[in-house]
Design goal:
The protein is built from 17 helices and no strands. It has helices spanning about 1-5, 10-20, 25-55, 60-65, 70-105, 115-125, 125-145, 150-175, 180-190, 200-210, 220-225, 230-260, 270-280, 285-320, 325-345, 350-375, 395-420.
């Protein structure tokens, strides 16, 4: 549940619908699903195996397994990526919290589409207020991480994840009862294969990485906390299924509503923040649905920020050789994150840059490093083998998994790189 909570986040509810909307709906969905199966599954398993086999966080895992410090650059890459993602992710989480408080006080009541668009711009431009709302989730995340994994992250995820699914099912039910919602469903489920271009494929791969939290050691850290008996393959499949389910549910909520009210699905990043409040106003229970939706968005964001910050907290604990305990690490990491959040709120260029550089370069590089590390450097079978950490991958499944790690996944990542460098 905690790993699923890490995966399910703004990537599913905020980003997935708008990217799908811009890339032909159903066509994007199909390519995305193929990416999740081909690349998502082996990479999630790899991170879990590294963590479970070593019992260490992203800091010590590579050195422990390899016996030398040749792969330590990967640890530092993970840590740096975690910080940069946190810098902008907490700001978007801040937008969600800001919208939740506004939904609660009924600010959106009676606003037109145009006013809602300028409202979004005004919210983002009010820097002192934005700063306050971005620091709030940092404090909430730090409060959860203050406790150890069982009492903090795990207990919270076990409550929040089912609640999230329940709330989304409820919203989907409401939206599907709207007149004209079937056009939106057709847009999302009837594929037009002419829409599948290389760009769509690349976007889908990038989204798959971000949405499943792969490539910066978050799942290594969670893997280290796994009990010995836990089946890595089954857990990975569960995470993927839940993550994909939430993304599809988000699409089922958003597209029928967009089409039922004659709006444009290619609205871009503001889709959730501008279009949805307008849609809620026209539904039967505007206050309740907007509060419900933004509460859900905040919950999804928080279970993801917990995983991001846990990477850094575990890293600092381990890197200090136990000199810094969990509480001190949480304080140090929070201070660092707040400094980055100040930068991101203050300078929009930095916000965009952190988003781009992590998604286009750092996460693919991290994932590629992990693939090559496990695929080519570690022993696979036997007592010392990495596959020994999981009873689930045996025989043919293990062979397919290793082949994916050695060839398929690195080749796919090189494609993403070439695309983001504008070579393709
Ligand atoms: N997967 C989350 C989302 O979809 C974001 C996220 C959380 C993440 N932890 C991560 C992305 C670690 C990459 C790495 O919103």
């Amino acid at each position: 549940m905690a790993a699923a909570g890490s995966a399910v986040g703004l990537g599913n509810i905020w980003k997935f619908p708008y990217i799908a909307g811009e890339n032909g709906g159903a066509a994007f969905l199909i390519v995305y699903l193929i990416c999740v199966l081909l690349f998502g599954l082996p990479l999630i398993m790899t991170e879990f195996l590294i963590g479970k086999r070593s019992g260490k966080s992203a800091y010590g895992a590579f050195q422990t397994l390899n016996g030398n410090s040749r792969w330590n650059w990967l640890s530092w890459l993970c840590m740096l990526t975690a910080f940069l993602i946190m810098g902008f992710y907490f700001v978007v989480t801040g937008w969600c919290f800001s919208y939740l408080t506004e939904a609660l006080t009924g600010v959106f009541h009676g606003l037109s589409m145009d006013t809602l668009s300028s409202h979004f711009e005004a919210v983002v431009a009010n820097k002192p207020r934005m700063l306050l709302f971005s620091v709030l989730p940092v404090a909430l995340t730090a409060a959860v991480l203050w406790f150890d994994v069982n009492t903090g992250i795990e207990r919270l995820s076990k409550i929040l994840m089912p609640l999230l699914l329940l709330m989304m099912l409820l919203m989907a039910g409401c939206v599907l009862m709207l007149d004209g919602s079937n056009i939106g469903l057709q847009f999302f489920f009837r594929a037009d294969f002419t829409k599948i271009t290389p760009t769509v494929v690349m976007e889908a791969m990038g989204q798959c990485f971000f949405s499943l939290s792969i490539g910066m050691g978050a799942l290594i850290t969670y893997g280290a906390y796994m009990p010995k008996t836990q089946n890595v393959t089954a857990t990975s499949i569960q995470v993927i299924v839940l993550d994909t389910l939430v993304a599809i549910l988000a699409g089922i909520i958003i597209f029928p509503a967009v089409f039922a009210f004659g709006l444009n699905p290619e609205e871009g990043p503001q889709l959730v923040f501008v279009v949805l409040p307008a849609i809620f106003e026209q539904m039967s229970f505007p206050w309740l649905s907007s509060v419900l939706f933004f509460a859900l968005l905040c919950i999804a964001a928080l279970t993801s920020t917990i995983s991001l910050m846990e990477v850094a907290v575990a890293f600092v604990c381990e890197a200090s050789n136990g000199k810094l305990n969990r509480h001190k690490s949480v304080l140090i990491v929070s201070a660092g994150v707040i400094a980055l959040v100040v930068l991101c709120v203050g300078i929009p260029f930095i916000f965009n840059y952190f988003d781009k550089v992590t998604a286009d370069i750092m996460m693919p590089l991290g994932a590629m490093g992990m693939c090559l590390f496990v695929g080519w450097c570690l022993p696979k079978n036997g007592e010392k083998g990495v596959l020994h950490a999981d009873k689930g991958i045996k025989h043919i499944a293990g062979k397919i998994y290793i082949a994916a790690l050695r060839f398929l996944v690195p080749a796919a990542i090189i494609l993403i790189f070439l695309n983001s460098l504008r070579i393709l």
